[in-house]
Amino acid sequence: MSIKYVPEPFRIKMVETIKMLSRKEREQKIAEAKYNVFNLRGEDVYIDLLTDSGTNAMSQEQWAGIMRGDESYAGAGSYFKLVEAGRDIFDYQYIQPVHQGRAGEKVLFGLLMGEGQYAISNMFFDTTRAHVELAGARAIDCVVPEAGDPNLRVPFKGNMDVEKLEQLILKHGPEKIALVIMTITNNSAGGQPVSIRNMRDTAAVCKKYEIPLNIDAARYAENAYFIKQREEEFKDKYIKEIIREMFSYGDMFTMSAKKDSIVNIGGLIGIKNDGELYQLIKGRTISYEGYVTYGGLAGRDLEAMAVGLYEGLDEDYLKYRIGQMEYLAGRLDEAGITYQAPVGGHGVFLDAKAMFPHIPYYEFPGQALAIELYKEAGIRSCDIGSYMLGNDPDTGEQLHAEFEFTRLAIPRRVYTQAHLDIVADALINIKKRADSVKGYRITWEPPVLRHFQASLEPIE
After folding, report:
1. 126 part of the active site
2. Is 421 a catalytic residue?
3. 386-445, pLDDT tens digit by residue?
4. Would you call 73 a catalytic residue per the annotation?
5. The domain that contains 40 carries what CATH number?
6. Which residues contact 233 (CB under 8 A, 6 or more apart)?
7. Catalytic residue among 35, 109, 125, 374, which?
8. Residue that is last in its domain, among 251, 284, 311
């Protein structure tokens, strides 16, 4: 095998036992779960690639911070440590902790948008889109067209289509555009990075029309690493310098710290310098999350997050982190299995439409591949396609996603090369029998974020 695995820049000092069920047992478990991978018990999963959110392994320094956490209801020392870290890394004046990213969206979006308005993004992820709609507005995706071809290898497939952005603003009217959101990295497009140049150009359009720019910052460090590797201007910059440059173009950010801050729970809202907006955010935080200095978190969680914000910037760690994706993608290249290329920062996004061209979008090829992976080797993944996208909020019609991906989201500092080899081997086996795989229909679904709860059945 010619693909080189990047060795872990750490030693393992605690382990968790996992076991693989038999094929018959796995088939029974997924049927009992109504063919929804979210309904599976964690103990029935061998390799869990459902998400990289909150599934990370914390370091000894973070666990030491857990013991040091200040549990004061108001004014805890751990809060001030976290705020200082946020100000240092992002150079934003106001840092507000919340319990996770979607909590930040709930607190912020309700202040910025309402009925008859729009939010535009390089691509919305599921919960962000949902919070735009829950605030009464409508979400519009505006990713560069290169993202639509999984086989096209260009460096920044997560970018905003700046020309289209301006056209959308003029079409709907600047007064109707409540917010522009830049997601870094672009999760729904396959964990693809956004360039600094694109950040600058997007910010210039927002400034021209006086529209605020929010950064969805869950994977800010991975995005910065890609910039260092692929954008000539920044090849000699430190990761922290690149992050400060990226965030200088935004007015605010929302962050799930459960990704690049390498913690199991936590989130942030950052406001660059708008004190009036921050006062409103504090009020909504008290209503939804608890007092402002704990934001729905224990003091120990604040402490671990403050440590993790810095650990996520380490270049040796980031080289290993992205290296894991490149290793798995290399195995898939050898097998002729299509994914969103070049590989993204937090996972490999398999092209389920290419694997199952006979399954139409309304029978959910991304979900079908996720189910096959579980039945094949106890691997849990998730659909990033029409099943996740759901129905049009106005017409109720099934939406046709731009991509039909099955996401293999790799938790940080958790799995080894041997685990990734099992994933690759499972996909190779599925490809051999791809023609026999059938699609699925939904038998029950909730009105919002259906993929977390829906029931399905195979189409015979």
Report:
1. yes
2. no
3. 999 889 888 989 999 988 999 999 999 999 999 999 999 999 999 999 999 999 999 999
4. yes
5. 3.90.1150.10
6. 196
7. 125
8. 311
